Amino acid sequence: MTITLFAFYLFSITAVMSALFVVVARNPVHSVLWLILTFFSAASMFVLMGAEFVAMLLAIVYVGAVAVLFLFVVMMLDVDFVELKSGMQKYFLIGSSIGLVLLMELGLVISHWKVAPEAGSLLQSPTPPIDTTHNTLALGQILYSDYIYLFQIAGLILLTAMIGVSDPISSSGASPTWNGPRTVFSVAPDGRRLWIASDSIDTPRTSDKRMNSCR
């Protein structure tokens, strides 16, 4: 067994097992950490395939941005996941039925899988020499020449999703309000400045408010 084959099996088994732990982990923070390990394992397999640019994109974009954002959201939002998962047994039957249907569909697809006759010739097609055309340049030439329309359509779909998410927030017209403690100042007839420390903005003034005078 060569080192490349050993590394492929190591990274593939790690990716599959970490993806499984993403689903079965009880702690959401642990799930995000397992997800980061899955991304790194997939990026390592891209390196073995010679796609270093795709591997760097996977590591920088998904691990450096998406997974870290998931981790911050999970840690900052105090979500009661125990209460959230309490109703899981209610939907266990329908969820298991949908999963069984998906497994049957995958089994039918795999059982009727056939390799195209021209697949061998396509794999043996000549590629540009590495010293003249590197991986990133070749990917850019294919992406912005043969698949330029699909690339632009994907950008429009992402732009539509961004507008759809931001539009309800901007059109709601809700402005943030402060409900914390405040200090209200008033001026007495003799020129002294009085301040009233109230508990919140919506709390009415009562006789037990503390009043002090200052010059």
Overall spatial form: extended
Give a short account of the largest sheet.
3 strands, antiparallel
Overall helicity: 55-70%
Q: Which segments are poorly predicted (pLDDT under 50) over 5 or more consecutive residues?
A: 199-215
What is the quaternary state of this protein?
Answer: single chain
CATH architectural type of one domain: Up-down Bundle
What is the assigned CATH homologous superfamily of one domain? NADH-ubiquinone/plastoquinone oxidoreductase chain 6, subunit NuoJ
Average predicted confidence as pLDDT: 75
How far is it from the N-terminal to the C-terminal residue, by CA?
87 Å
SSE-based structural type: mainly alpha
Query: What Rg do the Cα atoms give?
Result: 30 Å
- Total number of helices: 8
What fraction of residues sit in β-strands?
5-15%
| Sequence of secondary-structure elements | HHHHHHHHEEE
State the CATH class of one domain.
Answer: Mainly Alpha
- At the third CATH level, what is the topology name of one domain? Four Helix Bundle (Hemerythrin (Met), subunit A)
Question: Order of strands across the biggest sheet?
Answer: 1-2-3
Please tally the β strands and state the result: 3
